[in-house]
Amino acid sequence: MQPLADMIRPQTLDDVVGQPRITGKNGILRRMLSQGFASNMIFYGPPGTGKTTVANIIAKSTDKELFKLNGTTASISDIREIVDKIDTFLAPGGILLYLDEIQYFNKKQQQSLLEFMENGKLTLIASTTENPYFYVYPAILSRSTVFEFEPVGAKAIIPVIERGFAKMSERMGIGYEIEKGVAQLIAERCGGDVRKALNAVELISVSAVGGKITVADADEVSQRSAVKYDRDGDSHFDVMSALQKSIRGSDPDAAVHYLARLLTADDMLAACRRLLVIASEDIGLAYPQAIAITKACVDSALQLGLPEARIPLAQAAIMLATAPKSNSAICAIDAAMADIRNGVAGDIPRHLRDGHYGGAEKLGNAIGYKYPHAYKNNWVEQQYLPDAIKNKEYYEYGENKTEQAAKRYWEEIKRNDEN
Q1: 153: left (phi over 0), alpha (psi -120 to 50) or beta
Q2: Within a 13 Å sphere around the CA of 359, how many CA atoms are in the beta-carbon half?
Q3: Residue 70 pairs with which residues in a beta bridge?
Q4: Residues in contact with 273: Cβ distance below 8 Å, sequence separation at least 6, in sequence order
Q5: CA–CA separation, 105 vs 407, rounded Å?
Q6: β-pair partners for 123
Q7: Can you tell me the distance from the alpha carbon of 124 to that of 160, in angstroms, rounded to the nearest whole number?
Q8: How far is CA 74 from the centre of its chain?
Q9: What is the spatial distance between Cα 403 and Cα 28, in angstroms, rounded to a whole number?
Q10: Rounded to whole angstroms, how far apart are CA atoms 365 and 367?
């Protein structure tokens, strides 16, 4: 029996939902197809967002012969078999190859397409759920236009679900009595995946008792997958980035939201590591205790495990988001490391070198060193940086209260010493 998702698959761009930037009236794809032209394209986005559907529509609007391959199962011999049909009566107008899951093709397999993409006899439409800039061979990328498909919003999916129920009613010969809220629930639970929503419609329709479809049935059948997350995929880095940027931007609500995504996906270790980084990178010297508090929360979380671990980790995330911010530490170390990499260093001043060995004095090492604790306020003027960069300033005091207090403290001590 034909799956419901295939039965009501859109046949024109007007029927595609949730991708206005790609299929909208002023979109470049629509304008391109209106001229009967199709170029090499890469469709990037999560499952069930219309990538295969749009590829089928493009194939129908051109005079090219459509062939389909899946990167998980296809081989170079499959590619050669398709390429052999170029310039034959089987494909007089050329070939349009739809390659699903291109990220599973290795470099050699992807390279085998280049010659025919170059001369225009083969038009490639490749789809991937992973970031193509990480997984697609650069030469393929340079010859293609990347279109990003986004998860479809619940509002756009509801009409599709309603059409699905109507089609199932026709197919099953049953006039379903659908409780209010069923379509909304399925649309919210499918995670922006239209195919998943229609699979839920099909299952709940087939299993309906007495033609009644209730919210309870929808709750049982629909999958809780509203959050797109793959521990090994591109979305992992997007969530981690969003967590750090939300904390850096002092938004505790967003910080808790992205932490919840990580924990819901059981990726607690990644959350722990990132919170420790944030404590020093984004809060740093504005609130030096932040790293100790974060470490205590992380240690508690690791001892507790989920679900209880969510509590100390939320405490850390909210504390970091609401704490004063300073990136002076990372700026200082990055500037210093950049000088080291570029050869800007110089010899360590002799009075700072190790003098705890026989012969050190003959070499002039450690001679003239002034022990700060022997002086008032535990400070004395002397050179610490190498001669080549003796006036270099890597650290700049942040504008926060803590660092400004430290700045005033040292300015006062050094001023008094000069007097």
Answers
A1: beta
A2: 0
A3: 100
A4: none
A5: 57
A6: 96
A7: 29
A8: 28
A9: 52
A10: 5
**Distance between CA atoms of 160 and 128, rounded to whole angstroms?**
24
Q: Splitting the chain (419 residues) into consecutive groups of 10 residues, what average pLDDT does each group show?
A: 87 89 83 79 90 87 82 87 73 78 88 81 88 89 91 92 93 91 90 90 88 89 57 71 96 95 88 96 96 97 93 97 96 95 90 84 86 93 93 95 94 81
The answer to whether residues 216 and 248 touch, using CB atoms and an 8 Å cutoff, is no
Whole-Å CA distances, 136 to 139, 143, 399: 8, 11, 44
**Residues 129/159, Cβ–Cβ less than 8 Å:** no
- Is this structure's pTM higher than 0.90? no
Q: How many CA atoms lie within 13 A of 237 on its CB side?
A: 6
Task: Map residue 141 onto helix, strand or coil.
Answer: helix
Q: What span, in angstroms and rounded, lies between the C-alpha atoms of 200 and 194? A: 10
Contacts (Cβ under 8 Å, ≥6 apart) of 366: 350, 351, 352, 353, 354, 355, 360
Q: For strand 95-100 and strand 145-148, is the pairing parallel, antiparallel, or unpaired?
A: unpaired
Q: Cα–Cα distance between 31 and 44 in angstroms, integer? A: 20
